[in-house]
Hints:
This protein has 423 residues and is mainly α. The chain is 63% helix and 4% strand.
Amino acid sequence: MMSVTSKSIDFVGKNLVYGGCFSNASFDRYTVRNYAKVNSKGFLGRGHGASNSICCKKRSTQCRVSSIMNIVESTLNGGTQAIQGLTGLDLKNYSETPISSTQLFDVVADDLQMLNKNLQSIVGAENPVLMSAAEQIFSAGGKRMRPALVFLVSRATAELLGLTELTAKHRRLAEIIEMIHTASLIHDDVLDESDLRRGKETVHQLFGTRVAVLAGDFMFAQSSWYLANLENIEVIKLISQVIKDFASGEIKQASSLFDCDVKLDEYLIKSYYKTASLMAASTKGAAIFSGADNIISEKMYEYGKNLGLSFQVVDDILDFTQSAEQLGKPAATDLSKGNLTAPVIFALEKEPKLRDIIESEFSETGSLAEAIELVKGCGGIERAQELAKEKADLAIQSLQCLPQSVFRLALEDMVAYNLQRIA
């Protein structure tokens, strides 16, 4: 079994000078994000040399730092060698100014707005029933996190290569990624017999299982067609593997239901197949279309993979700690169906009674509620939190190859935003 080291969330940054201010002084990231909202368009070809200053705080003292524009310029002048940045994130600083999903994607808001407009035309108006089914998912309150990752990595890596704007292939990749993700959600809801998705009725509930399966199939096929038209064999192989991974993940999950001997490594492999594979392909594909070298592309792959794993672990924690109203679906759904996630796997190491309850498939009244309390009471949640933080730290480390910019800050913020959900 993979060992999980207990890492503090209070990571310490390496010394890094920004106009006389060390990196272990915490950025007032709220100020940076607001600054970025106004000035982000200037980071690709417009607005270089701006003289605005950003303040950062070090405990009670404040110091002025030079414009983040100049930080980017100095990095570009130094070639692809990265500015040594933070090796982790201090959630205590983040808790003072919580990150909302809206703030998170401010710097690529225009890109996401364009994506939203294009999605309907990409799915195809000639299939009104399938379009209605897809629209049910598109409009169900998703944050568009995966295409946002494409845009953020695209813009962060474009700076390394001196690109002045995103290419059409960057934008098409983001659209393909969102279509694949949407198709997987439609199929997941059918397989899990879920009635709700983000608080709304699922596609198969509204249109029936037949239409739901066909809608998912159609979107996989349509995304594959657009993928082939990108004419980049490396990206085609990368994204095609994701679709294969989805199926592998579902098979692994179905074959291990109520199996109390499932190992943490097996859980992580399944989580990679079902969640992290798509994120990793999104971030690596974006770097490839920016013309980044193999080292940068692989670092972006590692970032997406570890962010995806951390997100999955956090989702699995929230399945125990949030209400049905907060989740938009019944609580402890995975456990009730025999899908054993990180909190349960850790709890099983300490609580033999939990094994008996699970292997009985909750045949007795009140046994599911008892199992939930056992998971909460014997450290399963806390150890899963450590695992989520460990993967988050690895994701942050992978960003060290990028120059400091609002786009890299947003990628770091995404890691912190995820951990804030369990802070």
